[in-house]
Amino acid sequence: MWPRMLERANVAAGFDLNTNPDPYQPTDSSNFNQAGLPTLFFTTGSHPDYHRPSDTADKINYEDLDRIVDFAAAVIQATANADMAPAFTKVDPPNTGATLAGVRVTTGTIPDYTTEAKGLLLAGVVGGGVGAALLKMAGVPIRLNWPGIAGISGAAAAVWTLRPTLTNTQLFEVMRRSTRGGAWNRNTGYGILDAPAAITRAAPAPDPQEPNEDVYLIKPGGLSHAGHPALTTRALRHATIAAHVVRGDDSEDVYRAYLPAKGKLIVTVPTKGNANLEVWGRKTRTVFERGAAAQRDLLGVSARRGSKTERVVVAARSVGQYVYVDVSLGKNVAAASYSVRIATARR
Description:
By secondary structure, the chain is α+β, with helices and mostly antiparallel strands. The chain has 3 domains: 2-81, DNA polymerase, domain 1; 106-200, no CATH class; 215-346, Jelly Rolls (Sandwich), CATH 2.60.120. It is built from 9 helices and 13 strands. Helix 1 packs across helix 3 (62-81). It is globular, with a radius of gyration of 25 Å. The termini are far apart.
């Protein structure tokens, strides 16, 4: 399907196309290929400034960039208008290695071809390959290229390949908690990435429904079309969920819950640490509202000191509605675990 479609779209674009059927490339599309989804990946090749601060706007060829966008848009439109969806064709990893920029690799790794260094820098590993096995060995003779988003993504891919039972939040946590450089800092983040330590570090308990730091991340039509599932609904009147909050970028957890018409919502949060509880109305735009907006939308607050159970009871009027339950990290603590217990009842 792809070759014919590319050929037709290129009539107007006029590119000298070089196609490669190998899906095991150092790009995000390789994740979709491993998930069994057909992929098409456009690239103009590497250059010395790739993923470097020197890759500045004055070096962009805007005229050809416009041509590439038009070409890609034509391919997308042709795919959308096709009678059938593209079929996935499984391609086994090549036994003889893949060639790109003159480098041949046979270890099941995804190389970083943009950095000059002694040895071979990796952007990731292919599951089941020799590269994944090498990372398990003590004194492994491979150095991952950490700087920049590509290096972090490659390290995360390597750790998740070796520890496939981790949830996405557990992966984040073992990467964060195994860094070197001290505690979290708002200016420098979590420290220096240490993938070998992340491979062996004990995983924390799962942290469900992440990301859920604010309303727009969980409501329908926000980050996703469906939004996060509500803990309670018209039919489901009781729910319990266990999670945790940590200082930094996960100091707030927001959940949806149903407040029945002419009923009441009872939210109880036992904590280990210091966590606060708020319940916000259906028109809330953010749980960080202040002033008149908070007076209108904030339905209840419980902020007791220390590891005391928080509890809020909200009474409904004649109309049922989905509200937001917000658990936030309390003062003077770095982390707290908790359970949210929600029940609805008639008044």
